[in-house]
Amino acid sequence: xxxxxxSPLSLVVHEGDTVTLNCSYEVTNFRSLLWYKQEKKAPTFLxxxxxxxxxxxxxxxxxxxxxxxxxxxxxxxxxxxxxxxIYLCAANAGGTSYGKLTFGQGTILTVHP
Amino acid sequence: GAGVSQSPSNKVTEKGKxxxxxxxxxxxxxxxxxxxxxxxxxxxxxIYFQGNSAPDKSGLPSDRFSAERTGGSVSTLTIQRTQQEDxxxxxxxxxxxxxxxxxxxGQGTRLTVV
Lengths: 113, 114
What we know:
- The complex is a heterodimer.
- Chain A is mostly beta strands.
- Chain A is 0% helix and 59% strand.
- By secondary structure, chain B is mainly beta.
- At the A-B interface, strand 4, strand 5, strand 9 and strand 10 of A face strand 4, strand 5 and strand 10 of B.
């Protein structure tokens, strides 16, 4: 059974801190790993990673995939209160599960002023 | 439309009643997904459509759950004889093709079974 595990489950920091969120996966016929930010209901897309070792950046957020370790990290530098959200990691498998995203349980990030 | 649209946004129903949840994907998106998110949990996969067919129904939790998609567009998720454990946010997402790119999520339907 495909599985995605995120850590930590929750994190409380102060504005300006840097955080690292972890995601590990066990997925048959792995195709890609996706990161989403969920503030209210609809998760919004952050990154899609398919190649190992290539960092993707968007402003203060960056992410990288390690296929050897079956893991990914999401870094947020100089955190702001607006970064408070649930961060979801999801793995996409191929084969008969093509098109299906398996999500982790999420990391709840709280950024205090 | 501009984004994925789901209706209703909130639904309160009595235990044992049937409910229908609707999803309007982004125009032209061939792939459509249904997920369920219970309080404090991650997203649980329910079903995936490519066009009108569902190659993967493995996530439907019981035979009380069914879904269809017509015209390669609108999808309906039906829950029969609702139970309290069905209470959750039901999220729909679509993508141009099956996850060659990101999936775009709707705002979800919050279902409460009382």
